[in-house]
Amino acid sequence: MAHEIARRDVVTTLSKTWHGLEMIVPEVTQEVAFPWSVKLEPIFYGTGAEQRQHGKWVLPTGSDDGLPIGIPVNLATYSVREPKDLWKVRNEVVDGTQNTVVSAGTVMDRARYFISTKLNELERIKHADGSESELIFNAMGSLDKSMNEQFSMSSIRIVCNNTLSLAFATDKVKFRYRHSINMASRVKEDKPLMQEVAGLAAVVKAAFDGLIAEKVNKDFAHRVYTGLVVSPVQKEISTRAQNIIDAHLDCFQRGAGNNGQTMFDLLNGWTGPRSTGFEGSKKDNWSVYESSDFGSYMRDKESFANLLVNDRAGLAKVEARGRELLTVGPVLVPVA
Q1: How far apart are alpha carbons 36 and 30 in whole angstroms?
Q2: Do the bridges between strand 132-134 and strand 124-126 make them parallel or antiparallel, or are there none, so unpaired?
Q3: What is the dihedral of CA 195, 200, 202, 204, to 10 degrees?
Q4: Do 37 and 182 lie in a common domain?
Q5: Are residues 140 and 15 in the same domain?
Q6: How confident is the model at residue 67 (pLDDT cuts 50, 70, 90)?
Q7: Preceding omega of 42 cis (within 30 degrees of 0)
Q8: Per-residue pLDDT tens over the stretch 130-185
Q9: Within this chain, do residues 53 and 181 fall inside the same structural domain, yes or no?
Q10: Residues 195 and 219 in one domain
Q11: What's the pTM?
Q12: Going by DSSP bridges, is the β-strand pair 132-134/136-142 parallel, antiparallel, or unpaired?
């Protein structure tokens, strides 16, 4: 049961999900998604006259049915956070931004809980192929120590444990907190930064929209890619460099969602091969992923995006260098 939706769990959404176990509602609210709170029951040890209450350990239970939720915890070192705490942070982070909670609920017999909020002002980011991605502010936590509390920006709407785990593992812009006794103060300190992240997404969307609207052609792309690929110390285009340039040009024109007509295609033409690897490369899939997401390819992609969005003077210099190299021949120098 990959969705991990048990009998006591409720998953509320605005639309149908893949598992069909959701409760479709006109509005996802805290009262409907989490119609219970956490009660901390004392834990006793020993028997008869020797029975004693443990001074630090408690058992989280549901206020509605008295049944355990998660596992016993030590309040001396662990902070119990329940859905209402998560909802309060969500409200404060998106305050001042039009938003809609699109899904909220629990999985794993209430051990994990989540809230997915769409930021209405951003709507969707449109890609070059006409497809769209939602920007979702996800909040998630647990009562069984299986995951830390996390707040993140994502394109994933959580509706089950599968999507919860995927968002927890892959969301790039995230804030995570261990359930230590000073956790609440750390979350409070980071709220202004989370609010800035939510606002920054609108800036990113506006930048992408601008790139989609700006027209360029293959010759321009050829000059830019040449200026980027050929090392500044080289005066000629090597065979290896030409193969890399050709790969970027091909992605610019025919890569997923590209048609070779806009600055957004130019961006995708550069990032595409540096995300999936170049044909004929000796790198294995893991090495490509590591470089793309954490290494030199990641830095290449970030630098190019910054050129397009923030440094057009720098982009002009790259294009001028590419024009100079292409005017010379180009001379193809075999690589030893």
Answers
A1: 10
A2: antiparallel
A3: -160
A4: yes
A5: yes
A6: very high
A7: no
A8: 555 567 888 899 998 888 888 887 767 777 877 777 677 766 667 777 777 776 77
A9: yes
A10: no
A11: 0.58
A12: unpaired
